[in-house]
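Re: that chain you flagged

S.,

Sorry for the slow reply, it's been a week of failed gels. I finally had a moment to sit down with the sequence you sent. For the record, here it is as I used it:
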Amino acid sequence: MRPFRARRTAALGTAALAATMLLTACSSGGTASKDAADGKVTLTIDLFGTFGFKETGLYDEYMKAHPNITIKQSDTQDEAQYWQALQTKLAGGGGVADIQGLEVGRVASVVQKQADKFTDLKTVGIGDVNDGLVGWKGAAIKTADGKVLGAGTDVGPEAICYRTDLFKAAGLPTDRTELAAKWSTWQGYLELGKQYAAKAQPGNAWTDSAAGMFTAEVGQQKVRYSDEGGKPVYETSPAVKTAWEDSTKLVADGLSAKLPQWTPEWNKAFSTGKFATLSCPAWMIGYIKGQAGDASAGKWDIAAGPGKTGNWGGSYLAIPRTAKHPKEAAELIKWLTAKEQQVKLFTKQGSFPSSTAAQAEIKSVQDPYFNNAPIGQIFSESAAAMPAQVLGTDDGVIGKAFTDALGEVERTNTAPATAWQHALDNVKKANGN
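Prediction finished late last night. Pasting the structure tokens below so you have them in one place:
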């Protein structure tokens, strides 16, 4: 941990010195690094979902070591809503935070289309912040001319989270090794889902939504929405077509709770038992704990998912060009993404580290909330088997179009073929075609 900066003394010796300090503060303009003459700074950080910094006490730890810093976080659970709001702020040139979160599906767009909107981290002294991460993580946020536009936080290796109490009630096994064998493929997952549905209580579905299954399944492939040359291939991609077919089969077999993800209804269902399984990237662990609460501890467990691999999500921290406190923001980013903090985030929250050194330290971690599931082992094996995904500039837009279309299939009984065409049309519309 870096030593904290001492507060600037409040009592100034002479009026001349006071005037000098005031002039210096006022003349720094938009890049001012101090809120007031006493050196106190309020850093704003705007995120989506649950990064875990606040929940695991990292902000408090940092502020204790840096008493001149106050951290204020705002967050939006739905990343699509967050991204839309961020675009509006960036276009208007105001309202951005000192630090903005970026989801991995957006970084190609940022790097290729919005590099001028974000600070090159080399200019604020942390150009090496991604050096210790898995190779693809740092490469994805670097421009062709070498600018580093963000610092990598977590990655999203996949598994399946499930409710042991609901499994028992339906006569299914609860042992995570046995379950991993039964649903070693997505077809096995669907088949076990039909067995569950035959004996489950009314109102208890196999999984939350077709969107969740689709995102997890398509996230297991190297090529999804764009090829390695950057050409969009989502209309013909085998990964997309197979995940679509499996997800619409899930709906046809009555295995979905039809809950749109990130909605209040979905959040409530974590504690009320509306679904028994969930496609579960590592960062979902913290989300489940937050929504299900202490009363659900021990009811949830985790097993390796179909294919025992996949990556869903993972994020970056970036500094907009118009941030008020770029220097202090950079120092906080470097600390939050350091190995020590990545280990803490996984141990307490489940956010799987992108730091290779941190990954080496967490392989034996178990989680008491999830029946002491060996989360370090499960997610480490998933991450190790996952190929580096090809990231396209419109991955976020394309993914949302398909998951929205699956919502049509679930909730309005739209025919899969019709919904598929709606997804294609919405991608083109989003791109101005």
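What I noticed first: Residues 109 and 394 are 7 Å apart (CA to CA).

Talk soon,
D.
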